[in-house]
Amino acid sequence: MLTEERHLLIRDQLAADGKVLAGELASRFGVSEDTVRRDLRELAKAGQLRRVYGGAVASAPFAAATLSQRSGHAVEEKTRLAKAAVGLLVAGQSLFIDGGTTNEAIARAIPRDMELTIATNSLGVASALADRPLVELIVLGGRYV
Question: Where in the sequence is the domain holding 46, given as residue range(s)?
Answer without folding.
Answer: 3-63
